[in-house]
Amino acid sequence: MAPDDFEELARGAPETVTLELIGGKLEVRPVRDGNHGEIVMWLTRQCMQQRPEPGLYSVQEMAIEGRLAGRARPDGVLAPIGPFVGQGEWADPGGVLMTIEVTSCDGGQGHRHAYARAGVPVHLLIDRGSDTLAVYSDPLDGDYRQAPAYAYGAEVMLPAPVAITLHTEQLKNYTG
Asked: Which of 14, 33, 54, 149 could potentially form a cystine with 134 if both were Cys, beta carbons 3.0 to 4.6 Å apart?
């Protein structure tokens, strides 16, 4: 599917789903629930306490380019303040420090390859299906070379350029 066709389809999508174009394929995700929102707020607080200078954008669509053009709606984007000014709905990922994805309760693999192809240095996947966090970093050739996973409750050190330590005990409150 071409990005222009996707954008037209996405404008008319019902409010009960979120559409993305990943790897040239249309993906449909359920809308976010309350626990999902609490996880994003938890992460926002962690980021603001440790590194207030970048912003954690909870709504920022990105044009993921590379071998396959795409459109992604990450659950969060950590970036310096101001990189999306004047870019319109689907922003270029240049300057993004980290993308965040929170899966639904049934888990999911996320979009790490799309973010790696776009050159995003760190991708954080919070998997509610397995109660784990995966920290993808060091993108090369469409994937991340580093991908450690941690159980909820662990202290998780996010690598540069993010350089934040997540205290994840509270995530246990948002399972199921």
From this structure: 149
Q: Is 115 helix (H, G, I), strand (E, B) or coil?
A: helix
* Distance of alpha carbon 6 from alpha carbon 105, whole angstroms: 26
Residue pair 161/176 in contact (Cβ under 8 Å)? The answer is no
Decide: 99 and 76 in contact? Cβ < 8 Å. Answer: yes
Rounded to two decimals, the pTM is 0.82
Q: Specify the residue for token string 């669509």.
A: 61
Total number of domains constituting the chain: 1
**Distance, CA of 139 to CA of 149 (rounded, Å):** 16
The tokens for 102 are 């929170």
- The DSSP output letter for 148 is -
Which tens digit of pLDDT belongs to each residue from 44-60?
Answer: 999 999 998 898 988 78
Q: Is 20 domain-assigned?
A: no
Which residue segment(s) compose the domain that 61 sits in? 33-174
Contacts with 16 (C-beta within 8 Å, 6 or more apart), sequence order: 30, 31
Whether 118 and 90 have beta carbons less than 8 Å apart is answered as: no
